[in-house]
């Protein structure tokens, strides 16, 4: 009988989160980190772990907001954005996958199913790593801390790149050839009334934070950390990562090389965090040297 309660909470949590995120998308409300964390706090309270949730998640949320604010600041340094379309063409034999996908699937006179699906994966940029982090937190707090450390380190490395090597996304580089599909879809669905909180409105958007793509990197990092403990979840996250890759390229938000660079940042951030974690574990277990 005891296992029934966690299972009921798990099923209820999935329905609860799906309902919240679904309603927010339906009504045109931006799914921002603070709303996701507040939704997860309710589940933590139901699990009897509300206090430890606040202790563990408040620093992450503050640091994540600090990164978002800095990302906007990086757009004001005056560095000219780089054009990576030449690199993209070199990788794909002279073609641009964004142009190929939009020519094949985008229709300007209607909102197509692929527009909605791609926008869904794009808008789940914040909820996915936070919800996966919550799964780690529920089951193994140390695993959660390492995942969050890698996530924040990756954001810091990306910020440094945006600061000194800004790059233009396809929609900016080719305004007459590539459509910024998200803008067209949001305008058609919500008549421009998409709600963004005052917190995020106060952040300056960075149009040139394209290389690396954190949209591609976040689910890839989640998949990498899930692999050692949650194989089924990791396989699902790998498929999700592929869907995100297709979505961001189709929408005109990123080149494929942006995503590939994002995967490199995943590997670097994870390697640094894991090396430091193992070094600290060895120091903690090393017997103290007796004094003379």
Write the layout of secondary structure elements.
Blueprint lengths: L3 H24 L5 H14 L3 H24 L11 H7 L5 H9 L7 H11 L3 H13 L1 H24 L5 H4 L7 H10 L7 H4 L12 H14 L3 H20 L5 H30 L7
Helix pairs in contact: 1-2, 2-3, 2-7, 3-8, 6-13, 7-8, 7-12, 8-12, 8-14, 12-13, 12-14
Provide a compact summary of the structure.
This protein is 71% helix and 0% strand. It has 14 helices and no strands.
Rg value: 21 Å
Tell me the helix content: over 70%
Shape: globular
Q: What's the order of the H and E elements?
A: HHHHHHHHHHHHHH
List keywords for this structure.
292 residues, mainly alpha, 14 helices, 71% helix, globular
How does this model look, in words?
The model has no long low-confidence stretch (mean pLDDT 88). With 292 residues, the protein is an all-alpha fold. The chain has 14 helices and no strands.
């Amino acid at each position: 009988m005891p296992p029934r309660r966690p299972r009921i909470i798990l099923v209820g949590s999935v329905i609860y989160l799906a309902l919240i995120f679904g309603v927010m998308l339906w009504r045109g409300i931006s799914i921002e980190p603070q709303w996701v964390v507040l939704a997860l706090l309710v589940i933590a309270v139901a699990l009897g772990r509300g206090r430890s949730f606040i202790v563990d998640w408040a620093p992450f949320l503050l640091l994540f907001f600090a990164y978002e604010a800095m990302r906007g600041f990086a757009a004001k340094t005056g560095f000219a954005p780089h054009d990576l379309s030449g690199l993209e063409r070199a990788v794909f034999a002279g073609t641009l996958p964004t142009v190929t996908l939009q020519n094949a699937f985008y229709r300007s006179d209607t909102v197509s199913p692929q527009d909605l699906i791609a926008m869904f994966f794009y808008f789940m940029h914040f909820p996915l790593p936070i919800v996966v982090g919550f799964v780690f937190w529920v089951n193994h707090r140390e695993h959660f801390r390492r995942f969050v450390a890698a996530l924040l380190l990756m954001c810091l490395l990306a910020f440094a790149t945006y600061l000194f090597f800004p790059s233009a996304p396809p929609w900016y580089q080719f305004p007459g050839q590539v459509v910024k599909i998200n803008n067209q879809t949001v305008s058609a669905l919500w008549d421009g009334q998409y709600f963004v909180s005052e917190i995020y409105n106060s952040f300056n958007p960075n149009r040139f934070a394209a290389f690396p793509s954190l949209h591609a990197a976040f689910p890839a990092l989640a998949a990498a950390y899930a692999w050692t403990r949650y194989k089924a979840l990791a396989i699902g996250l790998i498929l999700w990562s592929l869907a995100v890759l297709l979505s961001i390229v189709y929408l005109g938000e990123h080149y494929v090389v942006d995503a590939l660079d994002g995967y490199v940042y995943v590997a670097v951030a994870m390697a640094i965090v894991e090396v430091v974690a193992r070094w600290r574990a060895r120091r903690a277990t090393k017997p103290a040297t007796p004094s003379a």
